[in-house]
Amino acid sequence: MHDFLPPIDNPFVVILAKLLLPLAKSQNGLEINVSQTCKAHVKSLAKSHAVLMINHSDRFDPLCACALSKECNENFYFLASREQFDRQLGFAGWVLQNLGTYSVIRGRRVEAASAKKTVSVLVQGKHRLVEFPEGDVTGRNDEILPLKEDGIRNLFEAQRQLLELTEEPLLVLPVAMYYEVRHDSVKPMISCLESLERLLNLSTVGTTELSFEQKIKRLISHYLEHLSNYYGIVLHEKRSLSAELQELSRKISVTTANANGCQFDPNEKTDVLLYGVRADLRKRIDTCNDIDCKFSGLLTKSANAKRKLFTKDLDRAEQLLILASTLENREFSPEVAWRILDRLELELTGKTTAKGHRTAWIDASEPIDLSTLYSEFEINEKSAITKVDTLVRAALFNSMQNSSRTLSAFKP
Hints:
The protein is an alpha/beta fold. It folds into two domains: 226 residues, Glycerol-3-phosphate (1)-acyltransferase (3-Layer(aba) Sandwich), CATH 3.40.1130.10; 164 residues, no CATH class. The protein has 14 helices and eight strands. Strands 1, 2, 3, 4, 5, 6, 7 and 8 form an eight-stranded mixed sheet that branches. Helix 4 links the parallel strand 3 and strand 4. Helix 9 packs parallel to helix 10. The radius of gyration is 22 Å and the shape is globular. It starts with 10 loop residues before the first helix and ends with a helix.
């Protein structure tokens, strides 16, 4: 098992993926609309060193990024978490690499190989780089979460090298994706909810007066109860569902860390804890595989199988965090309901069913010239990183709001 997986330039796979894109959109009931402004901004970067920073509110964001690539007739490089490459017995990894994607192991420490590749891609400028700087899927329609500082630091390192080599700027293009659930999703969403209620043996007696939101939250509460019993974890009473989901996720991560002798800081954020434990487990699996001893072969195989089971627990803990974040939207909209049901269905059944149609609207703001901030970065790294975070998040949020207002204006 290799830690870092580099991108592969394979034009045949890229062409095939673009040809299959309409089928992928159709199968997932997704229409993707890229604004003319966005296309113009992306095309203006053709001969520039640039990174596209996209908000990560939905699990279909990567598919939308591929659609953006096709619409602009440009091939991008992509950055994705290392665990994505292990899906489908490694076939997903082969596809991702041949589409120009390289891996990053999320955790407490910066993965040197991935950071070095990011800087190299930006300095060479052969392809524009696509990043989801919030990290994991947020499920948020109402807010852009803080960007990863290490990712911004990599951009400044690329800018430093560019200034030394060619004096060219590194451009950061904020690209916002906003999703809208269509009216034909109502019945399939109700059907999905009822199916999940039956799966969890959740009685519907006396629930006719409950709203759709209340029924979904009732379903999540019951799902939490099942998981708490399964893991033998007692949750605090009278807390919000989001807080309970985060608490359960954290306790699963802590249990996994303790069971495998992984060190962690009890004060670190829950997502950092989770990614750090996952990275430690991966490293331990690699170490075991490197042991060249016939006598220890059986033990090594058994230990790796055990750790892979723990990795599945961490995957579940990650899904709990995404659900928690989705529930923190200020408004419980049809889009929020769709995302919760879609994620619960995938977790409980291992697959998803069609739930009507959605439209993804893609827009972009003016590019940000990082060279104008580099002198500040040399003086005060934290201040410059914060400024980039503020500028990018504000641009993404404004674009999302513009998409929302435009859609509202056209509704009857």
